[in-house]
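Q: Hi! First time doing this. I have a protein sequence and I read that you can turn it into a structure. Is that right? Here it is:
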Amino acid sequence: MELPKTNVHWFIFFVLTFPTSFFFISLYTESLYLLFFIGALLSTRNKSYLIAFICALAIGLTRVTGIFLIIPLFFELLQTQDKKRDNTPIWKQIIDVFKSWKNILVLLAPIIGLGIYSIYLKITTNDFFAFFNLQPISNATRSTELILLPQVLYRYLKIFLTATLNFQYFIAGVEFVTILFVGSLIMYDFWRIISGSQKNAYTLIGLHLNSLAILILPTLTGTLSSLPRYAVPLLSTYYILATIKNTWIKVLIGLVFVILHVILFSYFIQGYFVS
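A: Yes, that's right. Below is the predicted 3D structure, encoded as structure tokens:
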């Protein structure tokens, strides 16, 4: 993922102004997750496999969704194969990725990390999957039964039509807008990439698929709760916004981000649950 210098400034701007980016400086795992995510990808690109393995292992220990790091890691390795031999069929490039034991170890690292965490949970709670089975306890709106995203969106639409206007209504709106805005943005850019030829296409495809997986997984518990926070480390969002050609559109989006950021942060420092 490469950006011109001007776009890099916009990328950083959108990272800092994203409505819930204040979670980077709070006692949540967003900043740690992003550190390991970037560290793993950069180390893989620079062929520093030991550092990549450590970062990928750590991300599996940091968050359950860290397991999805496998996706951009694989496409980053595939991008390397594509640069070596542009005329090689894709299936041969995929085989070449798995010919290296170093590549395989890096790809397995997030799974190993999550496995270690599950063993820890078994020792402390007697449940390998406590991170999932305890969801209804930690958040009453979550369910251990599979609920598809269209069902969740329908539930939220019913809330907007029937619920009383209050703080919870506002937060539900933020959650709903977040998944629609971020999800639509990523899906559009994903479609644009696969329908045309673009430099570093594999890297961007991996990044976007990872972002979509992280967005969708929490919704399978039947709620969009905490989604604005889960969306914070998704680099796809900032990359796409930074590459918008119209400066005024970027300024307008940035202004909306800043306003929402100030409002949500004001509630957050007073102890309100905003994500």
